[in-house]
Specification:
This protein folds into two domains: about 5-175, Peroxisomal Thiolase, Chain A, domain 1, CATH 3.40.47.10; about 180-330, Peroxisomal Thiolase, Chain A, domain 1 (3-Layer(aba) Sandwich), CATH 3.40.47.10. The protein is about 35% helix and about 25% strand. The protein contains eleven helices and 13 strands. The strands form four sheets. Strands 1-7-6-4-5 form a five-stranded mixed sheet, sandwiched between helices. Strands 8-13-12-11 form a four-stranded mixed sheet, with helices on both faces. The longest helix is centred in the last third of the chain and has 22 residues, at about 225-245. It is globular. The chain binds oxa(dethia)-CoA. Oxa(dethia)-CoA binds near residues 156 and 228.
Length: about 325
């Protein structure tokens, strides 16, 4: 069976920078609280109407295709991970197929929130390994800003999330390099601890409007922050160790860990628990906030641009988020 590798990466973030001080104009919050609890200094928010989840995904995809040095027409499958699609249905994969002018190729949408990119990468890995496809476009893109409750009531959630997109081109590789393994997990018992409950088939728009309850927050993302934090700091090290153990490695063998950028405190906790050095962990949440499915491909793209990943390096991607879902991928670059 052949191996799969990431042949190119790209990303896109909106130009509009929203600082913590900007947020303090909208709600009772402050720069000191946000930095102390999350490490976030600023995030990018789309100016309403100027971009979309699929549009940002297309821009990241074009950069990844160029970086992979292939022709757009060589892409033979699309996998799109997001929790903030342009439409309730269809998912944004088909919009990418149309925007890139790709002739009726398959497009799959992945609904795994913060773990979405690693889940999508795992699907691509399997398709490449079986020989079904040769140049798969994997996208993680999110437009959070339009759906956040930007008031003091919503501050525990709205200060964290940012908009942006990242993409990878996954192609066949030789046996000495590429994706070594991927590890996917879920625990639906915690589904409502980090969720957007409605509008959905569980709670239709009509019902929300009919009830007219000002305290009904079902149409805003809800997060039980402390609860999510505690699970995250347990699951991240577990799933990273699972990947390392399966491949006969130890934490000191990792050249670069790119964790989902959920909260800088979570990344620092993982680093301490696993006794990793500063140069073994890549973080950019300070500049972009938490961009859920887009955070890993944006961070990996930047790490590559900064020369922090070289050929032969052992790279670990790991994520945890809503579902709960968590996942890792170990890659010999
Ligand atoms: O990406 C997917 C997974 N998501 C995560 O991994 C996120 C995990 N959770 C977290 O990162 C943290 O729980 C948060 C950053 C969301 C919150 O930090 P925390 O230390 O857990 O704060 P808290 O929710 O316990 O709130 C502490 C206090 C509260 O005030 P009182 O009750 O102590 O008076 C909050 O009302 O901070 C208050 N607070 C704020 N104050 C200023 C909550 N949000 C804010 C805010 N600005 N934005």
């Amino acid at each position: 069976m052949r191996n799969a590798k990431i042949a190119g990466m790209g990303f896109f973030v909106p130009e509009n920078i929203v600082t913590n001080d900007d947020l303090a104009q909208m709600m009772e919050t402050n720069d000191a609280w946000i930095q102390e609890r999350t490490g976030i200094q600023e995030r990018r928010w789309v100016i309403p109407g100027e971009d979309t989840t699929s549009g940002m995904g297309v821009k990241a995809a074009k950069m990844a295709i160029e970086n992979a040095n292939i022709d757009t027409q060589d892409i033979d499958f699309i996998i799109f991970a997001t929790l903030s699609p342009d439409y309730y249905f269809p998912g944004p994969g088909v919009q990418v197929q149309e925007a890139l002018g790709l002739d009726t190729i398959g497009a799959l949408d992945v609904r795994n929130q913060c773990s979405g990119f690693v889940y999508a990468l795992s699907v691509a890995d399997q398709f490449i390994k079986t020989g079904m496809y040769n140049n798969i476009l994997v996208i993680g893109s999110e437009l959070h800003s339009g759906g956040l409750e930007k008031t003091t009531r919503g501050r525990g959630v709205s200060v964290i999330f940012g908009d942006g997109a990242g993409a990878a081109v996954v192609t066949p590789s030789d046996y000495s390099s590429g994706i070594l393994s991927t590890h996917l997990h879920s625990e639906g018992a915690h589904a409502k601890e980090l969720a957007l409950i409605g509008p959905a088939t569980n709670r239709w728009v009509d019902e929300i409007i009919k009830d007219g309850d000002p305290d009904d927050l079902s149409y805003y993302p809800h997060m039980n922050g402390n609860y999510v934090f505690k699970h995250a700091v347990t699951r991240f090290p577990q799933v990273i160790m699972e990947a390392l153990t399966q491949n006969g490695y130890k934490p000191e063998d990792i050249d670069l860990l790119v964790p989902h950028q959920a909260n800088l405190r979570i990344a620092q906790f993982i680093q301490r628990t696993m006794k990793l050095k500063d140069d073994q962990v890549y973080n950019n949440i300070m500049r972009y906030g938490n961009t859920t499915a887009a955070s890993i491909p944006i961070a990996l793209s930047e790490a590559l641009q900064e020369g922090k990943v070289k050929k032969g390096d052992l790279v670990c991607l790991a994520a945890f988020g809503s579902g709960f879902t968590w996942a890792s991928a170990l890659i010999r670059w």
